[in-house]
Design brief:
The chain is mainly alpha-helical. Helices cover about 90% and strands about 0% of the residues. The longest helix has 21 residues, at about 5-24. It has one helix at about 5-24. It starts with a helix and ends with a helix. It contains one helix and no strands.
Length: about 25
């Protein structure tokens, strides 16, 4: 996997966690 791909996954995962935190 490319570094850019890993960075995109990390960003999406971070945003997902923030979204869950806001929803709860």
């Amino acid at each position: 996997m490319s570094i850019r791909g890993l960075h995109a996954l990390g960003t999406c995962h971070g945003l997902g966690m923030i979204f869950k935190f806001i929803k709860e």
